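dumping this here before i forget
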Amino acid sequence: MSAVLTAQVAGMTHVSEPDLINLKTPHVLQAGKQSVSIDTRYEGGYEKTVRTDVEYGFGLCDHLEVDGVTSLSRWDTEAAAAGPTVRAGGTDEEVSLKYKLDTQVPVTVQAGLAYAQTPAQDDRLATTLGASAAWEATEGIQLYANPRAVFLDKNSIVGFGLGFSAKVMQDIDVLGDWTPILSGQNTVDMQTGLRGRAQLYSIGLRLKNLVPHGAVDLGITNSTGSTTGTSLTPTLGNSPSLFVRLSYRF
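structure:
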């Protein structure tokens, strides 16, 4: 009986894919391996701006990875329907460690420090925490969970991300993720000018092997960046952004 159960659990596990559009996966670089990615988002709602993220990862050992990411956007000022002025944009930089636990189901824990220059958190350091897990639901379909939090002054934000990747044809995957906010206020209502909560979402395609060891992700998302803080922050008015990412591992 125990042998059968072990075989069933083993059949559910899988070496996870790299991060989805707005969700961390438990993929960890092997010792000495590196990854680089750059993404751009065009938000055509209130802000009509281009956001850019650059991320670098390095495998310190087979179970430990260090990551650095910066999220860049111009400062912007918009007026809510009720009259208040709403500021958006700025930069957010984060350095974190990701550790892979010795479990049958791929699981990682992550901790880091972020430095934000944004309207909500100007010139302040923040602690970030997260965890990721992956399961293979069936051949070619993987499921992910990614709770994460950023501890800000008087308004810490906690989200619980759920996502999937599904192979639709050779070297093409469909990606999707959804992150409801469990605690904190992550947006401003553009009708009233008051703080509130909004869920995060993404959907897109991953085109593999267009370049050796690389991939291109295309899709839409309402998140504003790839740091923990920006991944938990939607665009003003919750407008979708066009998303393009080029990633390379070496």
